[in-house]
Amino acid sequence: MTGYLRGQVAKLANVNMETLRYYEKQGLLPPLQRSESGYRLYPEEVLDRLTFIHNAKSCGFTLKEIRKALTKSRNSEINIDDFLMTIDRKQEKIRSEISKKEEMLLSLNQLKSNLQATDRHPGVQATLQILNMDS
């Protein structure tokens, strides 16, 4: 029986050994064989899967979404068009999050301007009093 031990895979994939354990528990890695002495043996393909997981995470996919894609692919329930639609949905979600963050930035800029103004709005002055910052 050949394969890599957990420490070897962790080093080759540049992940923590606890991360490997977690991925196993979450179903992101396939069931593993064991050596005669009971050690988990990771096949070469696990390195490719770990690279896929890393790349998917860097694109903003959650481990739940990654597991779902891996499960569907294992059962041949996903094709390239499905994958492209998933990417489109992820892009739209990120655009929405960016839009919300831009609105927050505008609100913060407005708040900052209001705080720096010499003739503060009564609401701003009340907020400063609540925070014991009235000056």
UniProtKB/TrEMBL annotation:
What are the UniProt keywords, alphabetically?
Answer: DNA-binding, Repressor, Transcription, Transcription regulation
Q: Mind telling me which SUPFAM superfamilies this protein's record contains?
A: Putative DNA-binding domain
Give residue ranges for domain HTH merR-type: 7-72
Q: Which InterPro entries match?
A: DNA-bd_dom_put_sf, MerR-type_HTH_dom, MerR_fam
Q: Does the keyword Amino-acid biosynthesis apply?
A: no
Q: Which Gene3D superfamilies match?
A: 1.10.1660.10
GO MF annotations in UniProt: DNA binding; DNA-binding transcription factor activity
UniProt cross-references to Pfam families, sorted A to Z: MerR_1
Name the PANTHER family on file. Answer: MERR-FAMILY TRANSCRIPTIONAL REGULATOR, REDOX-CYCLING DRUG-SENSING TRANSCRIPTIONAL ACTIVATOR SOXR
Q: What is this protein called?
A: MerR family transcriptional regulator
The species this protein belongs to is Paenibacillus agri
